[in-house]
Amino acid sequence: MILLLCLTTSSLALMSLAHAESGLASYYGYGKAAKNGELTCAHKTRPFGSVLKVSYSGRTIQCRVNDRGPFIRGRIVDLSVPAARALGMMSAGVVRVSVE
After folding, report:
1. Beta strands 2-7 and 12-17: pairing type?
2. Which terminal CB of the chain, N or C, has fewer other CB atoms within 10 Å?
3. Tens-digit pLDDT profile for residues 58-67
């Protein structure tokens, strides 16, 4: 994540530029349960609680990081089953996604 300090006429604002990635995503049916059907995911470095935009095949979802992983080489994110279902990747299992 890149942080920029911007000086405006009346205040100092801190802006964050999202770090975009693309790579393989899979899904998991174990781990920490989400509340109220929330879409969640596991990421190696993004902070817990941060919200990621994950895109695949014309669909985009927002999911909250609540776990670490994936631990398989070449994968950049693991999605919960509800998140994978919302993204439309259940039958494929592993797909190439874009993450912001």
Report:
1. antiparallel
2. N
3. 999 999 999 9
Whether 6 is covered by a domain: the verdict is: no
Does residue 27 sit within a domain?
A: yes
- 10 is a domain residue: no
Buried b (16+ CB within 10 A) or exposed e, 37-72: eebbbbbeebeeeeebebebeeeebebbbbbeebee
Tokens of 36: 């109220």
- Indicate which CATH number applies to the domain containing 72: 2.40.40.10
Structural domain of 24: 19-99
